[in-house]
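Team,

Forwarding the record for the chain on the shared tracking sheet. I've put the sequence and predicted structure together so nobody has to dig through attachments.
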Amino acid sequence: MITDVLRSRRAQQQQWAEAKRVVYVRFLMALAQAHSRMTMAAARLEDGPSRTQAIHDAFLSDPHNSDAKSVLRELAIAAPDHIYEAAVPIYHQLRKARDMLASDGVTFETPEYQAVIQPFFAELDSLQRLMRNDLQPPASRRV
């Protein structure tokens, strides 16, 4: 009976880890794909209202119905607090990058945009490490 309880507990832990992994991957992909869509929209159009609208639409319109804000809400449910708290500023940094990129005269190559997007990518890498560490069995986690 003890063996069955331990086996059941281990199976539940594995299912929970897999559920978290799926949400983690979805969030990281949603952010990266939103950034790609925004830069593609910015590259296609000249400055003006249509470019601004295209960049905002690119941020929101995920073809897989997993825009970053929606997946951030999933993360709030599935992730430990420290991971969710690390994810929120990264989402806001991408929104800041969106707004900067939507400004007239700014492209993904300008120093103003780079000053916003470089911290986004650095924080995204840190978040990815936190997520990977969270998915490791407790005995093999890095501190």
